[in-house]
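Handoff note, outgoing to incoming analyst
You'll be picking up this chain. Sequence as last confirmed:
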Amino acid sequence: MKPRVRHWVEKLQVRLAAVAAAVVGWCAIWQLMAPADKQAAWVFLPVGGYARLAVFAGLVAALAAGCALATLSGRAEGALLATLTGVAAMSVRSGPMRTLLWQWEGRLGELFAMLAVEMLALVGVLVAAVVVVHLLRMLARPLCGDWFWAEPSAPAPEADPTARRRGAVADDRSARGSTPLARRLLWAGGFLAMELAVAMILLVLTFRSQETGQIAFALAGSFFGAAFVAHLAFPVRSSIPAWLGPVLLGTVVYLLGAMSSFTGPGPVWHEAMMVAAKVPLRAALPVHWLGLGCGGAVAGFWASCRFRETPEEAKSAKQRQQRKAAPSRA
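Most recent structure output, in case you need it:
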């Protein structure tokens, strides 16, 4: 499959899978998972919903399986993006955080501690979805042939002695198992640090309201931009550092709430949502951080991968044309 066609097919598959996952999440899964009071905040552990959390994990895994099978000719991050789009569609139907804070007034530290634990539990849900995606892709690969996603070929080294030596070193590294583990971990750490730094700046600028639409815009937009920028600076191959950023930041936000005492002139529930002046970051529920935050980060990573490949593939295509034209000129 030609690179341009492959890119077009991948984009089409991921978009269709994301739309389908959003419809399934909004209409079907939400009806199964919604709290009895549709106006209440959608959480699990603070309301003793351990069985519901297990059911939710199973439904997300099933959604990931469908998205994986629908995006076999694209990279794995496309399937994960579509899955998280479905989770995001569910999350925006939740009631606001303040309904939960009203119920727990006087025990807000305990509530935020439970939300931090729930955030970590949702990491397990996300990891299970990632495992399902990669397992199904591994099983389906022999059956798909050329239709299955293939990493784009890198352009050949330039025809000068220095470039040839660099190419020889690169080939030798590839033969020995590519980049050393320590360097990959260093790049992943750099990616994560830059993503968190950019995301916090963008969240301060965009997170100005407790309304669901503002939460969705701030989380998804901030982590999309942060992951895109971080991947341009640290082009890691795995999306794990991308979706780990929202998880870590959300957990820290809840832990800071668990260690805080909320006093002030305004309502206690309003003070509890503020992490800084005019930044009600705790208005976001754990499912918001999962669907919107992690979904935005994976989308930024996926978009950056495609953005980086375009000039490389153009260079490879030009080199192939030059090699074909070389015998005719001779």
